[in-house]
Design a protein that fits this description.
Elements: E1 4-7, E2 10-13, E3 18-24, E4 33-39, E5 46-51, E6 59-60, E7 68-73, E8 78-83, E9 92-99, E10 116-117, E11 121-126
Parallel strand pairs: 2-11
Antiparallel strand pairs: 1-3, 3-8, 4-5, 4-9, 5-6, 7-8, 9-10, 9-11
């Protein structure tokens, strides 16, 4: 089992940047595919970005492609989400998630595929 703790959220003006971090407990972090999701008020949880256990590739939703970057540091048991050129519509609670069941190069994009979730961190982008 793994526990996930997000940090780095906050209030930023449109066009600004934030970097979210997600620290994972345990010694098997490299065994998990990692993803970021977000949930805005009144909306369902939506996929943002993910990368497989291998860390060899990444996948993004169309709404953040070219602006957000997901990365992982297995030595620090941490996954990051660098968010640039932020827009008011990026305002949401951001969650990181871990999936232990896929193939080494598989990128899960459905929230139902993930086994563990963090508590979320609020990101607010003002116009």
């Amino acid at each position: 089992q793994v526990q996930l703790v997000e940090s780095g959220g906050g209030l930023v003006q449109a066009g600004g940047s934030l970097r979210l971090s997600c620290a994972a407990s345990g010694r098997t972090f490299r065994s998990y595919a990692m993803g970021w999701f977000r949930q805005a008020p009144g909306k369902e949880r939506a996929f943002v970005a993910a990368m497989p256990r291998s860390g060899s590739s990444t996948y993004y939703s169309d709404s953040v492609k070219g602006r957000f970057t997901i990365s992982r540091d297995n030595a620090k048991n941490t996954v990051y989400l660098q968010m640039d050129s932020l827009k008011p519509e990026d305002t949401a609670v951001y969650y990181c998630a871990a999936d232990e069941s896929g193939f080494v190069a598989y990128i899960p994009v459905d929230h139902n595929e993930y086994d563990y979730w963090g508590q979320g961190t609020q990101v607010t982008v003002s116009s």
